[in-house]
Amino acid sequence: MSIIMKGSEVAAAMKEELLREVEKLAQKGIVPQLGIVRVGARPDDLAYERGAVKRMEAVGIRCKVIELPESISQEVFEKEFSAVDSNPDIHGILLFRPLPKQLDEESVRNIIDPKKDIDCMSPVNMAKVFAGDESGFAPCTPEAVMEVLAHFGIDLKGKRVTVVGRSMVVGKPLSMLLLKKNATVTICHTKTADLGATCRNAEILVAAAGKANMITAEFVSENSIVVDVGINVGSDGKLCGDVDFEAVAPKTASITPVPGGVGTVTSSVLAKHVVRAANYLNGLS
Ligand code: NAP
């Protein structure tokens, strides 16, 4: 019988810890605050924003939404972004991406204070992830995967872990976080010669390819652990992961669902990062 690793369980445990941390800051007169920078009003961004604000406020993190016009010029955008970055009451910044095409994302990566860069846009934080230095901020989704594995007591030391996907948002940084925990990591991509065999060889398989239901039962070995990072719309119009859950779940020791898995934990990681940033910026550990 496979264990379904529900994101809600992980998020609930993280909430308890966050409430304690926020209370400790409150005793010092500090209210952690997230600055959300949104250019335009894309429905996806607005939906994520509503969820994130709700999650932050539930643990006592304040949110300030900075909405900028979609037609904003690079110069004005940089000025507005710098003002958020230098606001001492804002401890962490979330910028919705992709930006409209007239804006250059690279410049923001270099403007943002790495100490406020809670979703790892700055090359400083990304370099830290690759160096195994835990003093920076890893991207939220890979860290959410690590939270799920830790919550369900999955020891990574010496384990064969295969990650399908090598993007800078998920696959590569996640592989570095797994390596830091002493897993033996294999990274797969579209040019991997025998994807099936490489996946079957894994004790833990993480799918982050963005291809609906591509991981079928033939890709997993008996009693393996499967984490599905994919968020796709299936042929039936419903949200689904990269893993064919119905076919794969019976073979596994444990598996994350989509929806209700890794994605549910991402905004809790964001909240954790804001609290950590508030501690750093106030000279606390
Ligand atoms: P991406 O930038 O499109 O990268 C996809 C990666 O998967 C690439 O490295 C690609 O290989 C590889 N890939 C694609 N099809 C493959 C196949 N058939 N066989 C082997 N490798 C394949 O996507 P991403 O931004 O990393 O996101 C991946 C998935 O995670 C998406 O479904 C996305 O929606 C989801 N996501 C979820 C969250 C969350 O909170 N749960 C957050 C972010 C993203 P190449 O490099 O060779 O092209």
TrEMBL record:
Q: Which domain of life is it from?
A: Bacteria
Q: Does the keyword Zinc-finger apply?
A: no
The segment(s) forming the Tetrahydrofolate dehydrogenase/cyclohydrolase catalytic domain are: 5-119
Which Pfam families does the UniProt record give?
THF_DHG_CYH (PF00763), THF_DHG_CYH_C (PF02882)
Gene Ontology process terms (BP):
L-histidine biosynthetic process; methionine biosynthetic process; purine nucleotide biosynthetic process; tetrahydrofolate interconversion
Task: List the EC numbers from the record.
Answer: 1.5.1.5, 3.5.4.9
Does Hydrolase appear among the keywords?
yes
Q: Print the keywords alphabetically.
A: Amino-acid biosynthesis, Histidine biosynthesis, Hydrolase, Methionine biosynthesis, Multifunctional enzyme, NADP, One-carbon metabolism, Oxidoreductase, Purine biosynthesis
GO MF term list: methenyltetrahydrofolate cyclohydrolase activity; methylenetetrahydrofolate dehydrogenase (NADP+) activity
Q: Which reaction does it catalyse?
A: (6R)-5,10-methylene-5,6,7,8-tetrahydrofolate + NADP(+) = (6R)-5,10-methenyltetrahydrofolate + NADPH; (6R)-5,10-methenyltetrahydrofolate + H2O = (6R)-10-formyltetrahydrofolate + H(+)
Instruction: List, alphabetically, the GO terms of the cellular component aspect.
Output: cytosol
Q: List the InterPro entries.
A: Aminoacid_DH-like_N_sf, NAD(P)-bd_dom_sf, THF_DH/CycHdrlase, THF_DH/CycHdrlase_cat_dom, THF_DH/CycHdrlase_NAD-bd_dom
Q: Where is the Tetrahydrofolate dehydrogenase/cyclohydrolase NAD(P)-binding domain?
A: 139-279
Its biological purpose is as follows:
Catalyzes the oxidation of 5,10-methylenetetrahydrofolate to 5,10-methenyltetrahydrofolate and then the hydrolysis of 5,10-methenyltetrahydrofolate to 10-formyltetrahydrofolate.
Q: How does it assemble?
A: Homodimer.
Q: What is this protein called?
A: Bifunctional protein FolD
What organism, scientifically named, is this protein from?
Candidatus Cryosericum odellii
The major lineage groups are: Bacteria, Pseudomonadati, Caldisericota/Cryosericota group, Candidatus Cryosericota, Candidatus Cryosericia
